[in-house]
Fold this protein.
Amino acid sequence: MDNVIRTLFFTDVHVSGRNPRARKDNFLNTVLDKLNQVVDLSIQKNCDFVLFGGDLFDSPNVSNAVAGKIAEIFKKFNRIIGIAGNHDLFGNNIDNIKSTQLGLFEKAGLIELLFRGKKTIICKNDLKVQITATPSHFGIDEEDIEQDYVVSEVDKDVDKSIHIIHGMLMEKEINPHMKVVTIDRICHTKADLTLSGHYHRGFSPVNVDGKYFANPGSLSRVSADINEINRKVGVLYIEISKNNIKLEFIPLRQKKGEDVLDRSHIEKNLFREIKVEEFMREIKVASTIQSTDIKNIVRKIASNKELDKSVIDYALTKLSLAEENLREIGD
Ligand SMILES: [Mn+2]
């Protein structure tokens, strides 16, 4: 009797019909090739299903021509379970998922989307696995880290529990200005395996008292950062049995970073970016508002003046609708 559940986890594909500024190749073709490799691997490894960590699309309304190409590939997965990333959403508003391409994929049966507070149970012979998830949402990594990241309840008859989140989970903080959640803050979770996306560089799986935390990194390299040029792109292969979880990073075929990524715009803009950064720092010092994100500013102002929460929510909804309209024009 086969009592092992086999799966793959991949994340942050960032499908786009437009070439990112840093790419020298045809980015869409490269991404399609990566996704096809994931399909092939899932067949070769006999996966029962695959897991996806968010940011399938670089924007929530990529063209139908582009989304259609992804749909063709997704049909080949025997089962794919995943979450929305911030790039899949308008204004990072998870409540509006139905108006996005990823939402359409769900309705068309191309992906099973998971939402906060819902459980999926997968059984294979007498092995039972629970999957929970937190898609990206406005306020992730800032507001309710415990509720977003930590699994507090696992049914008694469940053998292993997996939690997927599109959040900035890291081993340690690398930059005091970046909102991150460090593993030590959430390692009391009851999930045996916590999978995260969002942080494109990823990290090697971390084991804390038998609980694993992993992020294999983005499936595509959208920036020409030195680390991205040298990074191996890949997926995480996962084997789950009653009393064990095995993780293996499997690199995909990829071109040499120097051949597909162009750093010239970075070198050219370095001086300007340093100037902008200095300017932003001065603004931040001069005001009590720490954030340059428009929605955070609304919230900070609102919290200063103790406005009613419904007023703030209304303002945020309006902002996300405005962003949606802007994107429709821009894309
Ligand atoms: Mn991403």
The longest helix spans residues 264-286. The chain is about 35% helix and 20% strand. The chain has two domains: 5-258, 264-330.
